[in-house]
Amino acid sequence: MVVLFAWLQLQVPGNAGPWHEAQGRTSWVEFSGRAFTVHNVRDFRYGADRRVVNADYTEQNYNLDNLQRAWFGLSHFGPMGLAHSFLSFEFSDGGEPRYLALSIEGRLRSGQRYKPLAGLFRRYTKISIFSTEQDVIGLRSHIRGERVLLYPVNTSRDDLEEIILALVEDANELHEAPAFYNTVLDNCMTNLLKHTALMENIAFADLQVLLPGRTDRLTYALDITPADLPFDEARQRATINPARSEIDAPGFSASLRCGWNDCP
C-alpha cells in the first residue's frame, strides 16, 4: 500500500496527446460582462459503427440573462449501475430555446478504453466538454442505444447562475492546467454537484455514488430533480425515446423532453 501510494503521488497529469478523437480539444470560455463565448463546442456526428464521421467544433455565444434552467442527464452504458451523468443548460432570448451541454469525463488517449477501476489510480486526466445535445445525447441515445434519462433541475435562478459560473471556471482551469479524474472522488457526478450545498449530504460510500446508474435516486431524494410525483413516474418521464426524432431533424432537443412537455 505504501509503494502504491508513493507511485500515485509521482504521477503527473498532462494535456499532451495523442488523445481519443472525440476528446482532442478542451473547451474554454471568455466573458464580456454577462455575455460569454464558449470555444471548442463539440458538435460531432457518428456512424452506426460509433466512429466519428463529422468532427466539427464551433464557437457559441450566450448571455447569462437568457439562462432559463438546467437539465440533468444520466446515460446507462453498462451493467452493475455503470452510467455517465451530464448537464445541459437551457437559454432563451424569446425564440426557440438553445442548449449547451456539459460532460465531464476521464480523458482517453488514442486507442485507450475507459475502465472504472483504472480511474481510481490516476490513469485518466479530466476533461470538461461543452457540446451540442445532438452530440453528447444523440451519440448515447441514438447511436449506442443506451438508456438515457433527462430531468429538469430544481434550483433558484441565483443558484443556477452560480453553478454554471463555477463549472465554467473549472473548465477554464482544466484548459490551462490538467488534473486527474477519479472514478469515485472526482467523477462526472461529483463534479456537477461539488459547487452546491448538496455536496455535504453526499457520502462517497453510498451505492448511489459508487454505482452512478442509481444517481437519479439520489437527486430525487435530495429534490434536485422533480420529487413531487412517484419516482418510477419521474424516471418514465425522463426516459428519452430515440424514435421520436432523428439527430439532425428540427426539434431534436424538444423531442428529448416529451415526457415533461407536450409533444405532437
Task: Explain this structure.
The protein is of the alpha+beta class. It has one domain (67-256). Helices cover 26% and strands 25% of the residues. The chain has helices at residues 2-10, 133-136, 138-143, 157-176, 188-193, 207-210, 215-221, 231-238, 252-256; strands at 28-32, 35-42, 45-46, 52-54, 57-63, 67-76, 83-91, 98-107, 125-131, 147-152. The strands form three sheets. A five-stranded antiparallel β-sheet has the order 9-8-7-6-10. Strands 1-2-5 form a three-stranded antiparallel β-sheet. A hairpin with a 6-residue loop joins strand 6 (67-76) and strand 7.
- The share of residues in extended strands comes to 25-35%
Number of helices: 9
Overall radius of gyration: 18 Å
**How much helical structure, as a percent, in the residues?**
25-40%
* Lateral strand order in the biggest sheet: 9-8-7-6-10
What composes the largest sheet?
5 strands, antiparallel
Structural class: alpha+beta
Task: Give the tags.
about 260 residues, 10 strands, three-stranded antiparallel beta sheet, 9 helices, single chain, alpha+beta
In a few lines, what is going on in this structure?
The protein is of the alpha+beta class and 264 residues long. The chain contains nine helices and ten strands. It has helices at 2-10, 133-136, 138-143, 157-176, 188-193, 207-210, 215-221, 231-238, 252-256; strands at residues 28-32, 35-42, 45-46, 52-54, 57-63, 67-76, 83-91, 98-107, 125-131, 147-152.
Show the helix and strand layout:
Layout: H1 2-10, E1 28-32, E2 35-42, E3 45-46, E4 52-54, E5 57-63, E6 67-76, E7 83-91, E8 98-107, E9 125-131, H2 133-136, H3 138-143, E10 147-152, H4 157-176, H5 188-193, H6 207-210, H7 215-221, H8 231-238, H9 252-256
Antiparallel strand pairs: 1-2, 2-5, 3-4, 6-7, 6-10, 7-8, 8-9
